[in-house]
Amino acid sequence: MKKPFKINIEQPVLDDLRKRILATRWTDAMDENDWQYGISLSYMKELATYWANDFDWRKTEDAINTYPNFITEIDGYKIHYLHIKSKTPDATPLIISHGWPGSFLEMLKVIPLLTNNEVLSFDLVIPSLLGFGFSDKSGKEGINSTVMADLWVKLMNELGYEKFIAQGGDLGAIISTRIALKYPDSLIGLHLNYIPFNYKPYMLADQKLTKEETDEQKKTYKFFMTEGAYALIQGTKPMTLSYGLNDSPVGLCTWILQIFKSFSNPKKDLEELFNKNGLLSLVTLFWVTHSIRSSMSFYSDPKEKLLSFGKDDFIKVPVGIARYPYPDSFPARKYIERGYNVQHWKDMPSGGHFAAMEQPDLFAEDIREFAMKLNYLSEYGINSKPKKILNQLT
Amino acid sequence: MKKPFKINIEQSILDDLKNRIADTRWTDEIQNSKWEYGTNRSWLKELCDYWQTSFNWRKQEEYLNLFKNYKATIDGVELHFIHQKGEGNISVPLLLTHGWPDSFVRFLKIIPMLTKADENGFSFDVIIPSIPGQGFSEIPKESGMNVKRIAKLFTSLMTEELGYEKFVAHGGDLGTGITEQIALYHAESLLGIHLTDVPYHHILTIPPDKLNDTEKKYLDDITKWQMTEGAYNMIQSTKPQTLAYGLNDSPVGLAAWIVEKFHTWSDCHGDIESCFTKDELLTNITIYWATQTINSSFRHYHEAMKDMMQTMYNPLKKLNPFDKTGTKTEVPTAIAEFQIDLLPSKDFSNKFFNVQQWTKMPKGGHFAAMEQPELLAEDIRRFVIELESVKLKTQQLALA
User: Fold this and answer.
1) Which of A182, A376, A386, B262 is the 20 to 30 A CA-CA neighbour of B241?
2) Is A328 strand, coil or helix?
3) Residue B234 forms contact with A (CB below 8 Å)
4) Residue A299 annotated in active site
């Protein structure tokens, strides 16, 4: 079923994009350099000039097409994915799920780091979520994390991987957690760099949260109140929002960049953390594939339920958590451990929500470390038995 | 010194607008959805086709210019306003303050109803300013243009500029907040205030354990509303600039953002055109487009958020003798409760307002002045005629 795929956006689409950027009807600002109301006007103007005149999408395409891209169909959905096999045989399969407003492009820098390492590398699968990039954008209701979990397990099986590691942040963390809940036997381990905002562990009536846990919850709530409005509007009125974003490149760009700004080190300029080409590649992919509306469907789908753990929902597969310093709200370890079998916890020295883009080396190294721990665990017979890693190390 | 003002949008802006509508890069939609995810695509397409091909701004402009439009600089801020004098022997000055996402056009239909004299020769002088940063008033150049500051500007407009000693103030939506501030800080200039809603932030300033059951129910309703319908408020107050880029660049984006509120907040039972004509909706939207004020209109939400954070989290503010936030105004108050809007009980409203008249309206929604102009005009008239101070003045004039 799977077919090799090369990305090649038609030139008129790119020409039209450039024309629209140059024709932007700019809004005003009381202070062009201010960031307290959102993306600064002077910054956005500078970036737009670069986008129209200097940014070269074809270079991004070349970078993507360096790797094997495929399109397959599962359960009637068209799914785009990258599949990069490790140079070492019998490598552990690893599926990385991106989030919103990311895409497979977030992971480009970590591909060589995760597949070329001589000591430990992976067979890496990076799919595009439904509604994103080159995957299906049917506009049907019912695109949610449970559907994605089903699809990813089928995709991995189709590729010949019965057991694998699932990694994710943002929406990817929700999808990966759902895989762990629904298909525990398919997982060797689960690695998260974000805890789903809708996660709620199962607790008995007489169990109480510790102060540390409630303190972190308060911090998260405060963060949501100042930075989280995007999620509420995407969850309630995605159509209203989409008209402008699909019609105005600059509107789309600021909407996306705001998340990069909000979820990264607030003391640093965006471009100290991310380069222009990386950011604009992400935004351009949303633009050329008309996928902003469909990418938001996870927020509004009526069947996207809370990740409320029931009595038997404890995640038994070994879990690795990478806690990056930004944003500075993150559930307390104790709270996570109420629902996840945390075997690996790392407080990362730097990086934010878009860790794979911002800190690719740290990101890859931590996943590798987690995989090594899984090997150790399997050697001593705790939990699952990821033999492949063991074989690989010896 | 007020100067007559004629609305006259440059032709190049209108031509550019039509080109942009024609060039719209339409998004896809969630299959079979109506309005549950926001503005419905097929209706929006119909509206925008009409905007591009049939809507005649010049005709609307002619209508807007039938009223006496002026501009005056008050405390350094250039304000646009309509000043339409009453036809009666006794004419009470009435300030009408609009909200978001409407504009001064909200009140056009009730102008003739209010300026007309009744059988006793009683009428109103109607003054309708554009809130700074909306319509044809100046866009504020710095932060701090909050409801309190706007209240001061509008009071100066009424008293110093137009020479009215005392006036009645009416407001809805953001206009309610501004009217309340006039009552709190400029009560000496008021005869009474008339509102179509009660600012919901009052309930949030009271500790939940001090609320009675009715109030708890109201708080629950407000909280639920914030989660299902209040996201626009949250994004406009926290990241107004980020949102404004697309809406100032895409006419269809702007129309969708504005029109959703007219659909949701009106008493239209899902059929928006049962409450508003396309021309009416598009006149309002075209004003936002042509004046490029969607961003500055959002900043009012940012200001409101700052005000609310101050009230909720700054105990020192309550000790400040000059700060009247959350205190009760003694200015006689009338509240007209239309459908759709969530209003607290009369008892609760009495903690903040001196409620002398409460009317439960059989129909009409948030944009009452556009949806049910007769009901609203009648309610204002009934309230004002009964005010002791007005009665006195009427009697004096009758004797004279």
Assistant:
1) B262
2) coil
3) yes
4) yes
Residue found under tokens 């710095």: B142
The answer to whether B77 contacts chain A (CB < 8 Å) is: no
Distance in angstroms (rounded) separating the CA atoms of residues B265 and B345? 20
Instruction: Decide if B42 touches A, using CB distance below 8 A.
Output: no
3-state secondary structure of A169: coil
- C-alpha to C-alpha distance for B398 and A197, rounded to whole angstroms: 69
Among B229, B239, B272, pick the best mutation site for testing chain A contact (most A Cβ within 10 A): B239
- All structural domains of chain A, each given as residue ranges with its CATH number in brackets, are 3-393 (3.40.50.1820)
Query: CB of B231 within 8 Å of any CB in chain A?
Result: yes
Task: Catalytic residue, from A81, A199, A299, A340: name it.
Answer: A299
* Mean pLDDT by groups of 10 residues along chain A of 394 residues: 95 98 98 97 98 98 98 97 92 97 98 92 97 93 93 98 97 97 97 92 94 95 95 97 98 98 96 97 98 95 87 95 96 97 97 98 97 78 46 46
Per-residue pLDDT tens over the stretch B271-330: 999 999 999 999 999 999 999 999 999 999 999 999 888 777 666 766 777 888 889 999
ipTM of the predicted structure? Answer: 0.96
Closest CB from B141, B245, B255 relative to A30? B141
| Cα B365 off chain centre by | 13
Output DSSP code: residue A185.
G
Please give, rounded to a whole number of angstroms, the shortest distance from the CA of B85 to a CA of chain A: 36
B313-322: list long-range contacts, CB under 8 Å, 24+ apart: none
In 3D, which of A3, A21, A7, A24 has the Cα closest to residue A285?
A: A7
Count of residues making up chain B: 400
Q: Which residues 248-287 of B have a C-beta within 8 angstroms of A?
A: 248-250, 252-257, 260
Task: List the structure tokens of A248.
Answer: 């105005």
Out of A227, A250, A258, the one facing B249 most closely (by C-beta) is: A250
Backbone dihedral region for residue B234 (phi beyond 0: left; psi -120 to 50: alpha; all else: beta): alpha
Cross-chain CB nearest to B232 (options A137, A233, A252): A233
Yes or no: is domain B3-26+33-399 CATH 3.40.50.1820? Answer: yes
Q: Find residues 136-175 of chain B whose CB sits inside 8 Å of chain A.
A: 139-143
Domain boundaries in chain B? 3-26+33-399
Number of residues that make up chain A: 394
Strand partners, A96: A167
d(CA B153, CA A134) in angstroms, rounded, equals: 54
**What's the CA gap between A207 and A225, in Å, rounded?**
28
* Beta-carbon separation of B241 and A29 below 8 A: yes
Of A37, A232, A236, the CB nearest to B240: A37
CA Rg value for chain B: 21
* Torsion B239-B242-B248-B251 (CA) sign: negative
